[in-house]
Design brief:
2 domains, 1 helix, 11 strands, alpha+beta, single chain, 24% helix
Length: 221
């Protein structure tokens, strides 16, 4: 083969090799991009599944509970329901036991407790009500809901006029709208997280091995 022809052949071979390499590189790039997209979609779907699961409703005959902030350690939840024809909501932080001693330790006796986690629990009545076995009159509105356990068996439920508070750090009894007795009973099974429910005309919260409740009735029928 003549030198010139040999040179042309070598140049053609070089261009062919470059095109093959480029095509291979493009294929690899496309495959990597496709894998990254699939991974991103999978992660996004997983997050969506977790979010959907976190906001699933817990329902009873006259109420439902929904998670409104699942991103924090003690998720913020809200109960919406009705007692004796009175609409009410309870907004609360839902702490976990996490192998801790709850009553007499994490929740000390003879000290006002936020009855949940983070912000104080808030309860809203859509109409005037009577609360507790004492039938104490309470005007429609939103209150912070505190409790004061003297022991595991003896509880006081406090409705305070300052609805927005962080914990019980700024709590002042001079702003109390009402104080009533709470009924304490052993829970049928341990509750890892603290939650509120409604049963008949009772508001209940359950945590660990204890359930505390108080009745609510319409102020006028």
């Amino acid at each position: 083969m003549k030198p010139f022809s040999l040179l042309i052949a070598l140049i053609a071979l070089l261009f062919s090799a470059c095109e093959t390499t480029s095509s291979t590189a493009d294929s690899i790039t496309d495959a990597v991009a496709e894998t990254a997209t699939d991974a991103a979609n999978t992660a996004q779907n997983a997050v969506a599944d977790v979010t959907e699961a976190a906001t699933e409703l817990m329902k009873g005959e006259n109420y439902e509970v929904k998670v409104i902030d699942a991103k924090i350690k003690s998720p913020r939840k809200e109960l919406s329901g009705e007692i004796a024809g009175v609409p009410l909501t309870i907004n609360y932080g839902s702490p976990a036991v996490n192998d801790r001693v709850i009553y007499g330790d994490l929740v000390p006796y003879e000290k006002v407790w936020r009855t949940g986690a983070n912000e104080a629990t808030r309860i809203t009545f859509g109409k005037d009500v009577k609360v507790g076995t004492e039938g104490t009159l309470l005007a429609a509105g939103t209150y912070s809901l505190f409790t004061l356990p003297a022991s595991k068996e003896e509880w006081t439920v406090i409705f305070n006029k300052v609805a927005d508070q962080w914990g019980a750090y700024d709590y002042e009894d001079s702003s109390d709208a009402a104080r009533v007795s709470g009924t304490s009973t052993a829970a049928s099974s341990k509750a890892e997280r603290m939650d509120f429910t409604l049963s008949g005309n009772e508001v209940r919260f359950m945590w660990d091995d204890l359930m505390v409740s108080f009745p609510v009735d319409a102020a006028s029928k």
